[in-house]
Structure to design on (671 residues):
């Protein structure tokens, strides 16, 4: 099913949680809403679910106006960050809840409900926990039960609010892969909210990056990582080196010194140069457009991470780069640096 | 009387649940921090020396004996002083039966209504944000802080012959004062805080997520309330109802002002105890009093059980949260 959000505005007092947000989600997509806390991503999700109401705008699910219906009529599966399992019901009854509260006219008979719950518990591989209570489960198990419960009503769309936010790192990783494979199995249009870029890039087909109630960029994980549309996206996704530069007539200057890189059509004025840590090419002193002294090197895995104090600017500008280990760096060494890939954005403040 | 006041103070202590469990955690934590071995060998630094401990415990026990156990014993001793036959004869008096019936009726009315009002008030406070919420919370506590006599007097001022609605009611021959409605109103007022007070902290702690989950699964408002909210608050609700009932049956001050003391009609059990006592009918007076005392004892036992249930509910939610 498709979801369409048009010019949604939501204010809490004077604070605009969502400021004119437009979004289209295609059938069968697995979309991530990514942003820092307070960016409005959870509010947007809750509005789609019907748990919050916008001050203005439109929400369409499968072309049909959703704002005319309450949450209980929207047929939307919602998974909460803190699971929100019914604590006084067994796992089985939790999953069965959505089937049991259906209007009598369409309610299934007990045998069908039991079969369906069994099927869902098999799907999340937790059928052996059916008679337990939520408090007897681990966090990861609870979240899978919450998902099974949401799927029980055969939702038109599935919404997940920070589904792995309350779990420890190892369980998170497992559940991420599990969610992705589950989605490719059942193919229900899904949106999940996260503040964890790695999670968004790893799980989603498309990523929506949000900040301060705006959508900054929508794209595939590769897109938002390699071609960030704004300074915010470049800074938020992946580790970036940010240098304050001046753009004047096609040349780029750092602290008055011209850099040997093209302005790439960036407008003249105060700007910021963004380079990924691993996109800084190192060479002997005198080569490259930047020069600096290695202050500290840590090596792990395939890379070495070096802290480098740039020459000029009284050595106060310190950057961190990731270099391959084919050329071991030494502390105190002077090296040349050349950005392989970079982006220049106008400085906003 | 002293039993009742202790019930009330326990009720207002309910919101501090979390604080008491925190305290309970402290001693082992301190132990884990590691005391110097030498000090541990000479004397246990955590506790007072033996004699001091003995004196403190003895003081507490004798205080309780004098102020709680002794009066209870006196009540039952006086009630049975003329033998068991006199005791039951006193209870079988028409006046006594009427007082018992009236007390049960008033308690039933006020508990039922306060159950509804209390759940609504607690729901409003715990699950919604609105202006004037703090004021509402303060207002709920008002009956606790006002003298019961004043609570009764309010209704006299409203519905009495010289009151605001007095003439209007008289013209229509509606009896509120010196009748069951007045007694019920005064009792409802005095016992209002119990249910709301025992639910608010519980509902605030539980939040609204389970309700939201139920609604997103297609449940209606009523289904959500009866299948999700109510089961989650049932022990707290029973606790509030229990205390509300104990107070409703035992209320003296407010009821005394509005009842009019019409014998065999508007006397509740506590009122009858006083009247009989003033008429030197000690056996009858203490026989009724013994019923109230038994109610208090039963209430205490049930309350202890409910508190355990509430505690279990709390620890069960805390455990396994990883």
């Amino acid at each position: 099913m498709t979801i369409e959000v048009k010019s949604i505005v939501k204010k809490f007092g004077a604070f605009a949680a969502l400021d004119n947000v437009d979004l289209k989600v295609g059938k069968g997509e697995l979309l991530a809403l990514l942003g820092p806390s307070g960016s409005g991503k959870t509010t947007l999700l809750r509005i789609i679910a019907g748990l919050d109401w916008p001050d203005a705008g439109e929400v369409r699910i499968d072309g049909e106006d959703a704002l005319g219906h309450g949450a209980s009529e929207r047929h939307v599966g919602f998974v909460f960050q803190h699971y929100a399992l019914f604590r006084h019901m067994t796992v089985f009854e939790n999953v069965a809840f959505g089937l049991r509260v259906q209007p009598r006219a369409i309610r299934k008979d007990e045998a069908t409900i039991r079969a369906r719950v069994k099927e869902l518990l098999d799907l999340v591989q937790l059928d052996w926990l059916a008679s337990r209570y939520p408090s007897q489960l681990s966090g990861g198990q609870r979240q899978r039960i919450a998902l099974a419960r949401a799927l029980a009503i055969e939702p038109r769309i599935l919404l997940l609010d920070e589904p792995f936010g309350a779990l420890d790192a190892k369980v998170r990783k497992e559940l991420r892969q599990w969610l992705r494979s589950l989605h490719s199995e059942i193919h229900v249009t899904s949106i999940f909210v996260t503040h964890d870029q790695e999670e968004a890039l790893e799980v989603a087909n498309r990523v929506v990056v949000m900040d301060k109630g705006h959508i900054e960029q929508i794209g595939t994980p590769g897109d938002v990582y390699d071609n960030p549309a704004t300074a915010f996206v470049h800074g938020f996704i992946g580790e970036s080196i940010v240098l304050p530069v001046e753009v004047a007539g096609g040349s780029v200057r750092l602290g008055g010194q011209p850099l040997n890189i093209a302005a790439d059509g960036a407008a003249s004025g105060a700007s910021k140069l963004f380079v990924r840590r691993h996109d800084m090419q190192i060479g002997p002193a005198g080569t490259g457009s930047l020069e600096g002294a290695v202050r500290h090197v840590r090596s792990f895995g395939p890379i070495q991470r070096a802290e480098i104090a740039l020459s000029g600017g009284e050595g106060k500008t310190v950057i961190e780069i990731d270099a391959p280990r084919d050329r071991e760096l030494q502390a105190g060494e002077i090296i040349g640096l050349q950005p392989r890939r970079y982006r220049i954005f106008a400085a906003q403040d | 009387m002293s039993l009742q006041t202790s019930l009330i103070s326990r009720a207002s202590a309910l919101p501090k649940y979390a604080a008491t469990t925190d305290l309970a955690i402290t001693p082992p934590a301190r132990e884990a921090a590691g005391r110097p071995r030498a000090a541990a060998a000479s004397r246990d630094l955590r506790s007072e020396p033996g004699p001091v401990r003995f004196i403190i415990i003895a003081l507490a026990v004798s205080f309780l004996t004098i102020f709680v156990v002794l009066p209870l014993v006196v009540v039952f001793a006086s009630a049975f002083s003329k033998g068991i036959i006199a005791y039951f004869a006193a209870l079988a008096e028409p006046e006594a039966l009427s007082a018992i019936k009236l007390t049960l009726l008033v308690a039933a009315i006020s508990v039922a209504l306060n159950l509804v009002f209390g759940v609504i008030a607690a729901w409003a406070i715990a699950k919604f944000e609105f202006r004037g919420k703090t004021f509402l919370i303060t207002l709920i506590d008002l009956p606790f802080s006002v003298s019961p006599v004043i609570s009764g007097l309010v209704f006299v001022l409203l519905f009495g012959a010289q009151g605001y609605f007095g003439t209007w009611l008289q013209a229509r021959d509606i009896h509120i004062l010196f009748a069951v409605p007045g007694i019920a109103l005064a009792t409802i007022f005095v016992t209002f805080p119990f249910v709301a007070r025992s639910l608010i902290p519980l509902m605030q702690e539980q939040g609204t997520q389970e309700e939201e989950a139920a609604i997103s699964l297609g449940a209606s408002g009523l289904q959500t309330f009866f299948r999700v909210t109510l089961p989650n608050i049932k022990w707290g609700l029973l606790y509030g109802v229990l205390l509300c009932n104990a107070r409703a049956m035992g209320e003296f001050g407010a009821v005394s002002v509005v009842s009019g003391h019409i014998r065999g009609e508007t006397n509740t059990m506590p009122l009858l105890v006083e009247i009989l006592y003033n008429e030197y009918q000690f056996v009858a007076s203490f026989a009724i009093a013994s019923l109230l005392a038994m109610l208090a004892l039963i209430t205490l036992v049930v309350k202890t059980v409910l508190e355990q249930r509430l505690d279990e509910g709390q620890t069960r939610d805390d455990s396994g949260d990883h």
About this structure: Residues 19 and 292 of chain B are 33 Å apart (CA to CA). Residues 1-41, 318-322 of chain B have pLDDT under 50 and may be disordered. DSSP finds 15 helices and no strands in chain B.
